[in-house]
Amino acid sequence: MKQPVEDASGGAAGREPRRGDAAMGQAIVDPEELRKFANALRRFSDEVVAQMQMVHRQLGGLSATWRDQEQKKFSEEFEQQLIMFRRFAESTGEYVPYLIRKAERAEEYQQQR
User: Fold this and answer.
1) 96 in a domain, yes or no?
2) What is the pTM of this model?
3) What is the pLDDT of residues 29-52, one digit of tens each?
4) Could you give the 3-state DSSP secondary structure of residue 12?
5) I need a labelling partner for 53 at 20 to 30 A (CA). Which of 9, 44, 79, 95 fits?
């Protein structure tokens, strides 16, 4: 999921701030806190992927001893859930570079003041 590129004021890059924009000409964020959050989000996304892979392997091993219609139904539904988790982890991971860029822009803006 692509996020619009924003300038340090929170407005879309290339667009002049309009009167009435709440954050016109302001960087209302602590760049260091934003970086910390981005790093925590990256770790979270990585952990979700690692846990999904582990559980998927365990499910494969379980199919050696659990072989009936319920196992087949469970496995199919579980695979669908893993697909959704994978999409979630990927989209979460896509926010990390965006947040880091946002922190850099906010820091640049604050240094100019």
Assistant:
1) yes
2) 0.67
3) 999 999 999 999 999 999 999 999
4) strand
5) 95
